[in-house]
Specification:
With 471 residues, the chain is an alpha/beta fold. It has 15 helices and 15 strands. It has 2 domains: 147 residues, Aspartate Aminotransferase, domain 1, CATH 3.90.1150.10; 278 residues, Aspartate Aminotransferase, domain 2, CATH 3.40.640.10. The radius of gyration is 23 Å and the shape is globular. The protein binds pyridoxal-5'-phosphate. The site of pyridoxal-5'-phosphate has 15 residues, from α5.
Length: 471
Amino acid sequence: MTLANYADELEDLDRRYVFHPFTSPSDQAGSSPRIIVAGKGAVLRDSRDKEYIDCMAGLWCANVGYGRAELAECMKEQTLKLSYYHSFIGMGTDTPALLSEKLVKMAPGRMSKVFFGNSGSDANDTQVKLVWYYNNVRGQPLKKKIIARKRGYHGVTVMAASLTGFEGMHKGFDLPLPMVRHVKPPHRLWEAEPGMSDADFVKLLADDLEKTILAEGPDTVAAFIAEPVQGAGGVIVPPKGYFAAIQQVLKKHDVLLIVDEVISGFGRLGTTFGCEAMNIVEPDLITVAKGITSAYVPLSGVLVSEKVWATLVEGSAKYGPFGHGFTYSAHPVAAAVALENLALLEKDRLIQRAADLGRHMHAGLAKAFKDHPLVGEIRGTGLIGAVEFVDKSRGGRSVPFDPQLKVGTRISKRAFEDGVIVRALPAADTVAFSPPFVTTEAQVDRCIETARRAADAVMDELVRERQWKAA
Ligand SMILES: Cc1ncc(COP(=O)(O)O)c(C=O)c1O
């Protein structure tokens, strides 16, 4: 069988049998799936032998790069030694104990325990159950609402999708659940008045949160959940002082802070946790996943602060054992991989590398895109960045393009054909960049040049289609 025949067969199987997440079922029959079959460092190869620089680290997660022998060896060793045992009813295995100690000691704030899961979504569902339980133990059964942000992304399970602030993830699923509210995101382009200072924008956002808490009644609001930098919502970096102001409001109304570090944890922002980069000093609960294993195996964690843990302990008298846990909670192979992944980050100084490469990337993005006629904002920090494309041709303020034009998607598709994976994010025409920490400067430069060429080509297309003209 030739490589092309094999690729045809794989694509056919994929079309016939695979139910793809975030893909229109109506596109399935006529789709042209790309099947990735190998990866090394920042480079992926598909079934037709074409190579791509993965400037998204998969889904913001393959941080130490693909195909690391150290992680493969560690997985093999742990599997041969102990492939599985559970962590229910006080049982345990060795690697999760070692990992928990490491996580609690490296985490910001005063953390006490780690509850392990398998994905960012299930961890965020666990967070909400913990928060509800916490308030039941405290004798505040009405204090159950959770406030999230528009364009925040927290996953897809029933509660996590409710917390996620994208309409497209609620429509057709009877979501969000009734106890969830969404407040304004710190997205300067669409939420701030032109020329607004950081201080005034922070005040506007903190007031929006406080008004929402007061309108709902503080005795009904349990927690606020936020990513340090909103990832899938557009790589939205909050203005200076944002989290200090938000934490003040939360404290005043006895509302817990859940920090969703699924993307930002373990180096993506150039710091160990996003909390450090964004000045979040006292998280009550932290969600981690993705970068904890660099996506070699699924693993997530809920880090529980001393304050919350103390209340859970009191709860045993009322409720008995904590009635929650997954078959794969604290999986020994996943924990072994996480330990080795964290050791690699340290040994190769990869968090510093993410910070340095991030500076290079942001300088490159600014140079390539600052004068582009379609660019509304270039954002990012650490090794995460984005360019948002807007229509400035209509006089006055920039406006988003008609979503039907799929400007961001067209740009990312063209870059893909040119061998570079960047991602068009769902909320607007934003194209994201989030490469593995081991990507070279030359590879990052190639990604940026390719994205710029793709943006130029799409701009020419829009002109030909009479959808856009230079102002
Ligand atoms: C900030 C954040 N939280 C939660 C999730 C959900 O994680 P998972 O896809 O592992 O369920 C994601 C996934 O992208 C995320 O970016």
